[in-house]
Amino acid sequence: MTMTGNTSLTKPEAIPDWPAPPVQYREPLTIGPLRLSSRFHLAPLAGYTNWPFRLSVREIGGVGLCTSDLVNARAILEGARKTMSLLATDPRERPLFVQIFGAKAEELAAAARWLIDHHLADGIDINMGCPVRKVVKTGGGSALLCDTSGGTVELVRKVVEAVAPVPVTVKMRLGWDDQNWTAPFFARAFEEVGVAAVTIHGRTREQGFSGTVRLEGIRQVVEAVRHIPVFGNGDVRTIMDAARMISVTGCHGIAIGRGALADPWIFRQLDAWVRTGHPGPRPTYHERLQFMRLHLRRLVEWKGDEKYGCIQFRKVATWYCKALRLPKKVQQRLVMLSNLREFEEIIGPYVELGPPPGWTEHEAMGTPVPVPAGPISYW
Q: Does 262 lie in the same domain as 142?
């Protein structure tokens, strides 16, 4: 469809004084045997980084690696239907790491081996960052950061051995709380048992997703390892955020989760900034509308049912409406969406009208994405 609209209504923006890109980020980076095209990765987010979103983001460009939604290791071994749906993938989104969680080494190792044997992953990521109670109470997620006696390290070693030479990575938080920043210890220990890279979210489990990311904590993890890459994670939504994280922490790459939900073009812009010193053009209003449409259609394809694909779309509809500054009545209809025809009827007028007066691409990048407030919250 050729889209028209009055884009003259957007207000002019000042041209930012972009920071100098880190020269080292132009060099190739590898995780085990995998050479990555970019040092900017899509981080896993429960309920959101399914293959419809991953593939759509990767097609924009600039993504070096995608990691799946977290998946229960035991459910993989049991062949649970919902879990098999979460493992859906597409050759166009490779390389892909699948993130598994659990507390039993044997289950994690067996699930990792099953994923590799069935060609569903190019690498395995172990979740040690999830703060929600239903994961932590079983001993998984952030709870694994509490055992410095050897059990957690042994668990990781067994997963590494189960899939060698396929790379295994770990995504973790700084620790359980501010009195227990165990991530530097674990990063060094994991490297010694063969982990190929770690991603560190700069918050504790106690913080959940509230408060600010502690860049000094990420720095400690970077300094703790000898050779493996460390990816910084948390609160990166703009070029300025990325530049600051790289400068303060010395991280070898950046994993972005919530920032990609608000702005799927952030990877392309970061990659362009690294290569040229300028992020290039921001997405237009119509590009954002088209991405929303593509995301919905792929959710329907993924679910194999129009109704259930639309239900899945409902939880992302609100931030699309905020980014596009769509009226409240549109948001109210989209969060109750039940079919594709209805979607086209709702969105059609805005395709023709174009952006509302005063809308800018920069405004859309600042759209807040709702997140859990603390460790007992749920996505």
A: yes
